[in-house]
Each structure stands twice: as structure tokens, then as C-alpha cells.
Specification:
This protein is α/β, with parallel strands linked by helices and 216 residues long. It is 46% helix and 12% strand. The chain contains ten helices and six strands; from the N terminus they run H-H-H-E-E-H-H-E-H-E-H-E-H-H-E-H. The protein has a four-stranded parallel β-sheet. Strands 1-2 form a two-stranded antiparallel ribbon. It is globular, with a radius of gyration of 18 Å.
């Protein structure tokens, strides 16, 4: 009997985007949905070289060469409150940051659709956060590790990004207390979740508070 493979919503979204990167109709031909056609033509196939790409990727290159160690607390789903471990900045940049092509895609999505705000769960060193902020919208981002959050703030300063608010702590604690006006007054709020950052109950809690654009 053939075993069925189940994918998380995040993985399904990723496979959907990977399909369009490879598909024969990658230029939008044969697509009947106006929204999808518009997305393919104006976002997915936007090959302009935005200045944000240069700035953020230069920072990424520097972080990939940074061998300094920091103590990292793992507050993600399933961590069980494990003891902090020492990790190199270069390793965090290599393994915990989105690849450039996906981070750039998120930038183009925010730049084109212009949501009033973006909520990101899992800032890491702030590379993807920076891409979101370069699109010119207010960004609220959360990071569980105090040491990583501190480095992310340094990176925002290096890029002169002032439209980012970073909340440091456990998502279990931060999400139920989230009362920032941006969440309740802006119907176009969208959010982006790093894979593995949330358990199902937390994702449901966020979707309850920000029902429009709910994805993970």
C-alpha cells in the first residue's frame, strides 16, 4: 500500500512557489486567475535589481565570515526549555536564515502589495526582517533567543533601518499579550513565520488575532 506524504502548510506554500520557478507557464501564460497572473508577472518575475538586495546580501556575506560565539537559547516548538548552547554567528547565518531568493521574493511581495504592516515570527539575525523593512512598511518581529535578538538589533542599526520593532522572548508569552495597535487597527496586516517556529496552538492563536492573510 502506497504511503501518503503529508506536508505542513509552510512546506506546501514553498512547493507551490518552487513549481512556478520551474513551470512552463512561468511567465503567466495560461493562468486564468487574475490574482495569480498578476503575482507571476509583477512579483515572481520581477527581475529588477533592488538596492535592498545589495545591502542585505553584503551583510549576509559578513555574517557568514563571523566566527564569534554566542549562547543561544532554543525556545522553538519542541525544545523543552533546553540549556543554551554556544553557536557561531556564521552557522546561524548559514542555517537559520532564508536563502536569498526566497527573502527577495518576500521583499517583492511586500513592496508590491504594500500591506500596512508585517508581523514576523523568528527574526534570527534579521536578514529576512531587513528585506521586509526595506519595502518601507512597519515590521514587528519576534525572536526567542536574547543573544540572537541583540545581534539582530545591531544589524538593523548597521542598515539604518528604523521601521522595525523587535520583541524578544518566548512566543507562548508574547503572542497572547500582543496588543500593539498595528495588529488591531490595520486590516491589511500580514505575517511571515519561520519554519518550525510555532506549534499548532500558537499558529491558531495568531490566526485568531490576525485572521486576514493567515499563513505559516
Amino acid at each position: 500500500m502506497e504511503k501518503k506524504v503529508k506536508y505542513s502548510p509552510a512546506r506546501l506554500a514553498l512547493k507551490y512557489l518552487e513549481y512556478f520557478f520551474r513551470a512552463q507557464n512561468g511567465k503567466g501564460h495560461g493562468v486564468h486567475s487574475p490574482f495569480v497572473f498578476d503575482f507571476i508577472v509583477n512579483v515572481l518575475n520581477d527581475d529588477r535589481d533592488y538596492y535592498a538586495y545589495t545591502d542585505v546580501e553584503y551583510l549576509r556575506a559578513q555574517l557568514l565570515q563571523d566566527r564569534s560565539l554566542i549562547e543561544v537559547e532554543d525556545l522553538g516548538a519542541g525544545s523543552g526549555g533546553a540549556e543554551p548552547v554556544k553557536r557561531k554567528i556564521s552557522g546561524i547565518a548559514r542555517h537559520m536564515a532564508k536563502p536569498a531568493r526566497y527573502a527577495r521574493l518576500l521583499f517583492r511581495m511586500v513592496n508590491y502589495y504594500a500591506p500596512r504592516s508585517v508581523l514576523e515570527l523568528g527574526a534570527s539575525l534579521g536578514l529576512t526582517t531587513a528585506y521586509l523593512a526595506y519595502a518601507g512598511v512597519p515590521v514587528i518581529t519576534m525572536e526567542g533567543s536574547r543573544a540572537i535578538a541583540a545581534r539582530a538589533l545591531q544589524n538593523f542599526d548597521r542598515l539604518n533601518l528604523t521601521n522595525i520593532r523587535l520583541l524578544e522572548g518566548n512566543f507562548d508569552t508574547l503572542l497572547p499579550r500582543l496588543r500593539h495597535p498595528v495588529v488591531h487597527e490595520h486590516p491589511m496586516l500580514s505575517f511571515e513565520v519561520h519554519a518550525g517556529a510555532l506549534g499548532t496552538h500558537l499558529r491558531d492563536e495568531l490566526c485568531r488575532r490576525v485572521p486576514i492573510g493567515c499563513h505559516s
